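User: Could you check the structure of this?
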Amino acid sequence: MTAPAYRRLSVEQRRAQLISTALGLFAHRPPEEITLDDVAAAAGVSRPLVYRYFPGGKQQLYEAALRQAADALEACFDEPTAGPMTERLLRVLDRYLAFVEQHDAGFTALLAGGSVAETSRTNAIVDEVRRAAAEEILRHLEVPEPGTRLRMAVRTWIAAVEAASLIWLDEGRVPPREELTAWMVEQFVAQLLVTATRDEESALAVATAVATEEREGPAGELFRRLVPVLSVGESLL
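Assistant: Sure, the predicted structure tokens are below.
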């Protein structure tokens, strides 16, 4: 296999190229399996040149690649606050799971833990993505200063999405991505509804969200499927 031809780039261009190359490698192999020689070969440069830009070695390069991946993950949650809430979430989760699918091994190593490249700094970057995702979801719920219960419900759902993503990769991407996306949005609706029975603020957020939904949309279809399931508990009323 012929190595890529060396190209003279500016400092910023070369640094961006090395980060992008590393991210591509980390996406499909756990960080501990990647060496600086692998990065150098894939980028078509020498190992000393990689060290020139990342004197901290692989760990520094990994953190830079992780920062870029984190920015991309945060961008998945950037969605206009218009239209039915469930349809907005479907688009958000479709982008999120597309990223997960593209960066399978790296995503698993990052969230499952245990990587030799895992440090307090990498954990902080991951936690920042979780918090940013929660803030975006709360923004869509139109709650400017959410209380503990509503915030906990949203963050619990984000943790469930992460767990489901890892299991999905482990199970060979079964069910299909579209089905998993719809299922996780339905779980979000269920999480909000249950929280609303105990928290007035959450009940108001649910009412606001339901007002944006359409009868033939995801929420309407879910509620119709829930009616016969809930009927089994009529004797408890």
